[in-house]
Inverse folding.
């Protein structure tokens, strides 16, 4: 199964992805997480460092695919999760879609692309141009991360439009929204009333999740030293279980921008 995680920058995609990946591995799945954000820190809490990107490795080998070994680009992360960082196109030039395409091509050449039960793509979502929508070409499910604010829901609605578009030619479904870093969900509820889609989970602001980023560890690793964090892991296990149950999902229909503005403002 292939899952694409999208959402506004800084909303918690990578944090959530890493923890979902470990949760899926705990459920017996062989998992590969592919960071598709030029920020290339998607897998940081799985490996504890910034692993070399596919693009860096390809450049260092002059794009000779045959000189690249799986261990050059696939790094072992916590809990048995394998990790890849696609890297980014040259700033101000190049295309994010090209980078994702090269990554998938290389993984196929290394016979790694079909070796996993789950591949999770962690993708930025502020700009969903054709390039950054590329992971949707491979995904069975999309999960959108949002908080209870206008900007993240606006990005979610743009991602929704991209899913609707891609679903015309690909067997892609939206699994649903994951609310993150919010104790309130009134705007999330308003949005899903107007644009029906499942809400998979809503996580509050949890100081230890912020700390996990600084420590370079997932919550599953931290719970080893701090058993009281078990309740946080349960959120991620619950998301993993919902994904593994292969939900029907939906092909969503986005709301026109002006309607979204009036829906989410008090004017
Ligand atoms: P993105 O990948 O969407 O850019 P990150 O996963 O890097 O975002 O998260 C941005 C910051 O928010 C990180 O420092 C992370 O630890 C923090 N964070 C994510 N989710 C939570 C949460 N539920 N509670 C507190 N901090 C969080
Ligand atoms: Mg990220």
């Amino acid at each position: 199964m292939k899952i694409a995680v999208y959402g506004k920058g800084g909303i918690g995609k990578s944090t959530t992805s890493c923890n979902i990946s470990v949760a899926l591995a705990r459920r017996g799945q062989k998992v590969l997480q592919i960071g598709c954000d030029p920020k290339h820190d998607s897998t940081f809490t799985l490996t504890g460092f910034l692993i070399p990107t596919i693009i860096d490795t390809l450049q260092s080998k002059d794009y000779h695919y045959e000189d690249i070994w799986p261990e050059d680009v696939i790094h072992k992360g916590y809990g048995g999760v394998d990790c890849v960082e696609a890297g980014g196109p040259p700033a101000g030039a190049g295309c994010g879609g090209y980078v994702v395409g090269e990554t998938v091509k290389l993984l196929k050449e290394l016979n790694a692309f079909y070796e996993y039960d789950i591949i999770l793509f962690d993708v930025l979502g502020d700009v969903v141009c054709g390039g950054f929508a590329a992971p949707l070409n491979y995904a069975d499910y999309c999960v959108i991360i949002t908080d209870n604010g206008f900007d993240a829901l606006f990005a979610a609605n743009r991602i929704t439009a991209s899913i609707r578009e891609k679903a015309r030619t690909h067997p892609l479904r939206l699994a649903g929204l994951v609310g993150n870093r919010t104790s309130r969900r009134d705007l999330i509820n308003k949005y899903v009333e107007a644009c029906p889609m499942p809400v998979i989970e809503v996580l509050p602001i949890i100081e230890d999740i912020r700390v996990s980023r600084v420590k370079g560890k997932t919550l599953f690793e931290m719970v080893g030293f701090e058993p009281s964090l078990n309740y946080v892991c349960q959120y991620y296990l619950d998301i993993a279980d919902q994904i593994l149950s292969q939900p029907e999902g939906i092909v969503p229909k986005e709301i026109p921008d002006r309607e979204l503005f009036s829906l989410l403002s008090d004017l």
About this structure: The chain has one domain: 1-266. Residues 13-14, 37, 39, 42 surround magnesium ion (ligand 2) (CB under 6 Å). The domain at 1-266 is CATH 3.40.50.300 (Rossmann fold). The radius of gyration is 18 Å.
